[in-house]
Amino acid sequence: MKKQMKTIGTTLSIILATTSLLAACSKEEASSTPKATSSSAPAVQAAKYPIASAGTISSWEEINPNITSIVPNLGESAFGKQLEKETGVKVKYTHPADGQKKEQFNLLIASNNLTDVIEYDWNKEYPGGPEKAIADKMIIPLNELIDKFAPNLKKLLQQDKELDKMLKTDSGKYYVFPMIRPENGLVFRGPILRKDWLDELSLPVPTTIDEWYTVLKAFKEKKGATAPFTAQYSTGSELNIQDAFIGAFKTANRYYIDDQGKVKYGPIDPQFKEVLTLFRKWYAEGLIDKDFALNTDSKSLDNKMLSNASGSTVGLLSVIGRWMDTAKKKEPNYHLVAAPYPTLKKGERAFIGQRDFKYNPLASKAVTTAAKDPELAVKWLDYAYSEKGATLFNFGIEGESFNLVSGVPTWSDKITKDPKLNLQQMVSQYTKPNGPFLGDSRKNFNTYPEQNDAMKIWAETDAVKHVMPTFITPTVEESKEIAKLNTAISSYKEEMFIKFVMGKEPIDKFDEYVKRIQEMGSDKVLKIYQDAFDRYNKR
């Protein structure tokens, strides 16, 4: 998931002032003092950067894999060194091993040997959520610290009430410095097809379920694809297709919000039986990868889309460019294109698809109770929401990683023309692709116009109405109940999904399957989520 950027100087402030492109950013320097959140709030003590006689803080956070082949630690990167120079704060970074983030976070918590700040999904991944983390004395509420020492974030919260609501618990506690996506950074995954195959077969880009069926049959019968449609399978979770095909039936393979604002569990909706019937038919006819449940890493997806075994998938925006770069070396006509999230009827708008929220809990930082100087940690974190800080986080260093071209930050030749390293690897040395900062809508990793088109095509859904926010906050007791019930429900649901699709269980057993999930407590989970969603809407 990559962030995007806003403008430097006045342009940055103006663009970010609209809620559609996030929230407002201060037009002033980081040392300016905006109005207090309320008349009773204390005046903000804005930091002047670099902070004189600043000490050292420690940060536990994931490191972008693109940079690890160059330097092992963020502090050794050009970005890390420049951040220290601009803020005056030395940072000791600790990074979990690749693929072991959750396990090492659990060990960190269990050891109670916390760093000053921790970048993690405190809402979803900490048992009981942020309220429990605060009650457990793992992290601290940030209300007073933001009021006093974080003028840049505070200004954003004042000017964007939607963002403000996202960052609180139901009791009104701020608990993280957020990763904030720009509007054009919310949609980045969707259906992808081999356009060169479509052209060769004189077929249009499919938009409906029936058109997809025609395309997949042609890929199998006329192009020899052994897995016409493939996708990555998230281990222990689901076929990662972001509800493509499923949404055509006005449901989802997850909890979602219906048109009346009610939380529903898609896999037990009556119409989900139609989804399973469709997938069962396609699987039986060899149109869906017969090994879909084994595609648990990106390498298997790469291999199938690059070897002509597959002609379509649901994937990230970035793979369009990566696959075309790789394939064109041997197959010059290799061409990928995005397709809309499919519907049942021509011209319908897709019910749901991939769409994130401007607040991304996955890469946001909390200040822990172990912080020796919480004030310093907050001032350091707040720099990322200032004009100069946002520029560093999004673009890096002017004159090295980017230049201003007609006032627009543009990657330098040093970044785009390195003979050994690709764009992602070069950019990762100078910026922070994920983390708590203000994203800029002009940050762009796309190398093909098809990628720019894909962002627009995949955005044409009603996902904004139907995706359930990941940052609603059940109470501590509710969270315990959800954890207990959902683990069993999700496991059983996915076991049966695979069996239904592969034909190991007849679709006629769907009603028994629904009854079993209800007996496992799905109604209790739905009530908890509905109550939490209602409380969120009242914040």
From TrEMBL:
PROSITE patterns with a match to the protein in the record: PROKAR_LIPOPROTEIN
Signal peptide range: 1-23
UniProt keyword annotation of Signal present: yes
Entry keyword set: Cell membrane, Lipoprotein, Membrane, Palmitate, Signal
Domain of life per record: Bacteria
InterPro entries: Bact_solute-bd_prot1 (IPR050490), SBP (IPR006059)
Pfam families found in the cross-reference section: SBP_bac_1
Presence of the UniProt keyword Transmembrane helix in the record: no
UniProt protein name: Aldouronate transport system substrate-binding protein
